[in-house]
Design a protein that fits this description.
Blueprint lengths: L6 H8 L9 E7 L8 H12 L6 E7 L6 H8 L4 E4 L5 H11 L4 E4 L5 E2 L4 H12 L3 E9 L5 E5 L18 E3 H7 L10 H11 L4 E12 L7 H16 L6 H7 E7 H8 L5 H13 L1 E3 L2 E7 L12 E2 L21 E5 L3 E6 L2 E8 L4 E5 L2 E5 L1
Parallel strand pairs: 1-2, 1-4, 2-3, 6-9, 10-13
Antiparallel strand pairs: 4-8, 5-9, 6-7, 6-8, 10-12, 11-12, 14-15, 15-16, 16-17, 17-18
């Protein structure tokens, strides 16, 4: 797996003490695997778990009262796992049961078809989580077919949670207390309950760290691969969380560029020693923005002809967030948005003003908004 892009995080990892590494609970849900023809996939999943170099973990299997011989299969190939078999209301109900039984500080949900990309997936994740004390980690995720051939890559982009699922739940390792605070998975969603939970976790102010590369392989042939139903549930979830402001999601995503800025950040800028002209500009923008709970929502129309091509949103994350992967492919019109690079700094200019800058060197990893540190450690 590739090394992180942040020298500062690498230095934190080097200073780690082995006795401070967190316990991780891996949760897998099963139901009638033999009848569904998933035996070989489940075997691959278990082999990838048992081969992990990181040993401070437990594995819990929540079975939905299988009656096709799956329990005998589990006893045969997963003897070191804790098994609970009883009727449930689906995979997300099973995950919720697993969280309640978990004794680890962090929890990872690994589906019975999926498997770890590398034998050091948990070890590397634990190091990043321990070094930063983040509430959750996320990484890219490889999509594989029935023959384990990589067909696609889901790139983790936490900053886009506002309008699209930012990463696969298989690539997220999250604190148990953050799951409890978020209220677990909402079982009324059969496909996108993971997206709903991710939004809840982030809006609760959770901090995250980005793991380089991919820690898991997702077999893209299950329920969540049903694109139409996934889109329907995703839109319902977005409307539920942001219904006051998002009257028309399609127009919002396709026709405008959105800036979502925490109110606490605006207040910190106004109370800082920032230049008076910057404060005046911030105050003017804040007056024009829409009240959006903990945020101010800014909208800016772009001068382009109607197009079906979706434009990414630029999201300035919570102050607590401890790591951030900068969106380099924003697709913005050059007259409005310009990106400048130096050896250890990236500057995003909006209408010629340095709107966002990222500094990444041996002494700090920081993201600045109008020269005020948003993320710094």
């Amino acid at each position: 797996m590739k090394k992180t892009h942040s020298p500062y995080v690498q230095n934190l990892i080097k200073e780690l003490s082995k006795d401070k590494m967190p316990k991780i609970t891996v949760i897998t849900a099963t139901y009638n695997l033999i009848k569904a023809g998933r035996k070989k996939f489940f075997k691959k999943c278990i082999e990838s778990i048992y081969s992990q170099t990181y040993k401070n973990f437990e594995h819990i299997i929540i079975d939905g009262a299988s009656d096709d011989g799956t329990l005998d299969l589990i006893k045969e190939i997963a003897p070191r796992s804790t098994v609970i078999s009883e009727p449930d209301k689906g995979i997300y109900d099973a995950f919720n049961k697993g969280v309640k039984k978990a004794s680890g500080e962090y929890v990872h949900f690994l589906n019975s078809d999926d498997y770890y990309t590398d034998k050091k997936s948990l070890e590397i994740s634990a190091k990043y989580l321990s070094a930063t004390d983040a509430d959750f980690s996320c990484s890219d995720c490889y999509f594989v077919d029935e023959n384990d051939k990589i067909t696609n890559v889901f790139y983790a982009e936490p900053e886009v949670f506002f309008y699209y699922i930012p990463f696969c739940h298989q690539s997220m390792i999250v604190k148990k207390e953050a799951l409890i605070k978020a209220g677990f998975f909402d079982t009324k969603y059969k496909i996108a309950a993971d997206y709903n939970l991710i939004i809840d976790i982030i809006l609760n102010g959770a901090s995250f760290v980005k793991i380089p590369g991919s820690i898991t392989n997702f077999r893209n042939c299950g329920v969540s691969s049903n694109t139409i139903n996934t889109v329907i549930e995703n839109e319902e979830i977005i409307r539920k969380h942001f219904k006051k402001e998002l009257s028309d999601i399609k127009n919002l995503v396709n026709a405008k560029r959105i800036f979502l800025v925490p109110k606490a950040l605006i207040e910190s800028i106004m109370n800082s020693r920032a230049d008076i002209t910057i404060k005046q500009e911030i105050a003017r923008l804040a007056e024009q923005g829409t009240n959006f709970g903990k945020y101010i929502l800014f909208k800016k129309h772009l001068p382009y002809k109607k197009s079906t091509k979706k434009l990414k949103l630029l999201f300035i994350p919570l102050i607590k967030i401890k790591s951030y992967r900068c969106p380099r492919n924003l697709g913005a019109v050059e007259k409005i948005f310009k990106i400048e690079y130096t050896n250890d700094k990236t500057v995003y200019r909006l209408f010629g003003i340095p709107f966002v800058s990222v500094r990444n060197n041996q002494s700090e990893f920081a993201l600045y908004l109008f020269n005020i540190p948003v993320i710094k450690y």
